[in-house]
Amino acid sequence: NSEVFILAIESSCDDTAAAVLHNDKVLSNVVANQLIHAQYGGVVPELASRAHQQNIVPVIDAALRKANISKEQLSAIAFTQGPGLMGSLLVGSSFAKSMALALEIPLVSVNHMHAHILAHFIDEEGFEKPSFPFLALTISGGHTQIVQVNDFFDMTIIGETTDDAVGEAFDKSAKILGLPYPGGPLVDKHAQLGNPKTFAFTKPKVPGLNFSFSGLKTAILYFVQKKKLDNPDFIAENINDICASIQYTIVEILMDKLKLAVKETGINQIAIGGGVSANSGIRKAIKDAEQKYGWKTFVPKFEYTTDNAAMIGIVGYQKFLSKQFETAAVVSKARIQF
Ligand code: KG4
Ligand code: ZN
């Protein structure tokens, strides 16, 4: 089984993505971002579906061309079944079904959150793969989870957010500060120029391994409103220090829970995934933990952290090897039980 070629399609939110894998190696990884949403301050589902319809054929075509293989060489088609926006998921799944049917090859469904975790198993020079069991911290615009990963398809959520996802916390904080959507990367950019100890935001008290970020957002809102009363230019004058302080607090919240998870499970291999793992503060804290706590940590290649199809492809490859195929009656799911 050394010549497996998987075409993977990801369309769960606002990125249309396709990738071709040869076994566990990525031959091509194409993403079409939808810039249309920025002016609305968030993803507009109707517009996302429409953009997927426009982008999907060119994106798949580009992925096949870059991989330099023909459709006839494909072993299977993998697609994101969920979780995500229904209208967006339907575009990818319908296309995947039709193509698998036409080529008479197997169809493989993939859980988007599994893919963020298993992206670490893509064969990439300079990147080591974790061994089982390990803990995965998946942090994105829609999710914040600590997952105990025992094997490719044996994983349990041991902690998750009870309200906002950490990406939302970044994006909503950014919005309060008047930064455009998605604000996460901008908060990060300013934070790198500021002093994280300038302003103190209280961390939420959530029992166990769960998270809460809605209180932080409210604290930031009140802080900004109060400061603006004294000085209307307060935000502009202190943007770097404010962002550094917010980012510092969010990183502390994540690291506190990871420390507790390591203590409770006795597992000290930590892999991060999801769009927010691009954050410089989180990357540094995770790397520093190797020296500080003796953990072994895994940070994926940047292009495999935000939404992409290569991560769908690596799960597709694993499922192909264990012959976990779908019939053409498979349905998209906005929510999926882990
Ligand atoms: O995984 P992803 O691309 O899409 C989802 O599945 O949600 O994650 C997108 C999220 C957004 O909230 C974005 O603001 C955040 O990841 N993000 C960041 C950074 N880069 C992306 N947040 C903080 N710092 C960053 N550097
Ligand atoms: Zn994602």
From TrEMBL:
Signal peptide per UniProt: none
Cofactor(s), names only, from the UniProt record: Fe(2+)
Record has Methyltransferase as a keyword: no
Pfam family, one: TsaD
Matches recorded under InterPro entries: ATPase_NBD, Gcp-like_dom, KAE1/TsaD, TsaD
EC category: transferase
Keywords in alphabetical order: Acyltransferase, Cytoplasm, Iron, Metal-binding, Transferase, tRNA processing
GO biological process, one term: tRNA threonylcarbamoyladenosine modification
Protein known as: tRNA N6-adenosine threonylcarbamoyltransferase
Residues involved in Fe cation binding: 112, 116, 307
Localization: Cytoplasm
Cofactor binding mode and count: Binds 1 Fe(2+) ion per subunit.
